[in-house]
Amino acid sequence: MSASGGNKAIIAALTANLAIAVSKFVAAFFTGSSSMLAEGIHSVADSGNQLLLLIGGKRAQRERDKSHPFGYGRERYFYAFVVAVVLFTIGAAFSLYEGVTKIVHPHDVESPIWAFAVLIFAIIAEGFSFRTAIMESNPLRGKQSWVTFIRRSKSPELPVILLEDLGALLGLIFALFGVTMAVITGDGVWDGIGTLMIGVLLAVIAVVLAIETKSLLMGEGASSEMEQQIRAALESTPEVDRVIHMRTMHLGPEELLVAAKIAVSHDDSASEVARGIDEAERRIREAVPIARVIYLEPDLDRSHTPTA
To answer: Can you give the residue ranges of the Cation efflux protein cytoplasmic domain (predicted)?
Structure first.
């Protein structure tokens, strides 16, 4: 994912959420609706999350140093994980608490026209943000399903924004459902039910994000397609007989570490082996440009060594 593409989706989501948060709090003040209050907190949490993603992207661009010889690329994964924690602790926990409180102690929704007007505005704004995230994701997604893209993407920003925007749209629908039912029936319990639904939704999204970003933080390897390209590049090098074993790990979304033990002929001189390693590295970088850190260890091809 290009930084500009990810930032465009983040800024679109941040702009929409700040405007929506203000309108939701105004509606919550005039209506006394817990669904609207929960949605306001949800938008504030989302806005904070988008700021965290921007900070993570900026910090990840720092040059490698003595204490971090492989650079800071994985800071993007850390901040994406923090987003999941914030979404759960602030968004989900508050909504669940507020929903239970309003179910136990319900009260009527006052001036519902405020709630309906704000919810319609918010749905339009979130729809714009969601559309931007989809458009930025499509070139990277290719023919993958959305579920596969979110699970396999090594760039955390777009999957996070996609899930946040989807959650925001569904949350608005839940809030609209709760407020509408409360107005129709005259029973404020429905408002609490809508709030509870928002809390459960945010908790589910937060757990999904936490699982996916935890995997990236732990150090994910290259995709199977990328590993095949690397192996093919190595084995196409004349001085390399075969790949004995290979390990890969993402140091960041656009930086891959490749470590491999390669078999060379026992008749090759040291200079020939060195030239072969240089050529193999060139071919790997040509096939997989994000392979920035490459370590190749030559070994004798014992499977073809003549026996006495």
So the answer is: 223-294
pLDDT digit string, tens, across residues 204-253: 888 888 888 888 888 889 988 999 999 999 999 988 889 999 999 998 88
Cβ-based neighbour number of residue 42 at 10 Å: 30
Q: Does domain 224-304 have CATH number 3.30.420.40?
A: no
Residue 16 host element (H or E): helix 3-31
Beta bridge pairs of residue 247: 259
pTM above 0.70, yes or no: yes
DSSP characters over 163-227: HHHHHHHHHHHHHHHHHHHHHHH--THHHHHHHHHHHHHHHHHHHHHHHHHHHHHHH----HHHH
Give me the residue spans of the domains in the chain: 3-219, 224-304
Amino acid of residue 187: D
pLDDT digits (tens, 9 = 90+) for 250-298: 988 889 999 999 998 877 788 888 998 999 999 999 999 999 999 999 9
Residues paired with 260 in a beta bridge = 246, 296
Query: Which positions ≥6 away from 147 have C-beta within 8 Å?
Result: none
Q: Who's near 14: CB < 8 A, 6+ residues apart?
A: 47, 50, 51, 54
CATH number assigned to the domain covering 3-219: 1.20.1510.10
